[in-house]
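User: quick one, sequence for these tokens?
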């Protein structure tokens, strides 16, 4: 599935919580996950671990129905497909 970033986030910190995280589910990292390359792991305010890319938290989008959908790109001018 497509991964997204949120302009309101700051490096290492997710500002997408509550209802936001329902529509934009954080990409949760397992407790045993290890950062590699540009992928890092941040800790959300609720204590869960979330994947990030160079410190930018990563999310899915609830309205993307299948792999390759990018319907979240540009939503409200603050959500974007994650880029390398």
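Assistant:
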């Amino acid at each position: 599935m497509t991964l997204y970033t949120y302009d309101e986030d700051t490096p290492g910190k997710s500002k997408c919580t509550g209802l936001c995280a329902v529509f934009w589910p954080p990409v949760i990292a397992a407790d045993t996950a290890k950062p590699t390359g540009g992928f890092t792991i941040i800790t959300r305010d609720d204590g869960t671990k979330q994947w990030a890319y160079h410190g930018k938290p990563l999310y899915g989008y609830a309205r993307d129905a299948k792999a390759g959908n990018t319907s979240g790109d540009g939503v409200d001018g603050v959500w974007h497909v994650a880029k390398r």
